[in-house]
Amino acid sequence: MTRVLIAGAVVLALVGATAASGQAAEDPVASRKAVMQSVAGAAGLSGAMLKGEMAYSPAAGKAAIATFNAAGVVFGDYFPEGSDTGDTSAAPKIWEDRAGFEAEVAKLAAAASAAMQASGREGPADLESFKAVVGPVLATCRSCHQGFRKR
């Protein structure tokens, strides 16, 4: 049952990312929201395992890391000039401090890529290994949200 849920989460994340890439030119706000929804799901899954609310599974850990990694690759593309209005949680600081924002996105991409490499094919073997590789990813999320997201 758990594997079915994990597989479903991965499929949804991939579908969301594919849909987002198709929408990016037309509606970057909707695209980045779709990416962030997949990241929120991965963060929720990660948090549940880290807090002991859910048993750790290497496959679930790998699915969460793969979602973070995919987001790290594409997320920065969804903030073109002029996409700072409308129904968005993106803070104006993104466009005011573009270099700072791009540095945060680069930190996410690097941390997620390192986690992906360290997790191997099967995912981190145990909760401590997962914590070691996903911790830096979650820290970049927190850091970016503190500086570049509307409260």
TrEMBL record:
The keyword Zinc-finger does not apply. Residues 1-24 form the signal peptide. Binds 1 heme group per subunit. The keyword Transport applies. InterPro entries: Cyt_c/b562, Cyt_c_II, Cyt_c_prime. Pfam families: Cytochrom_C_2. GO terms for molecular function: electron transfer activity; heme binding; iron ion binding. This is Cytochrome c.
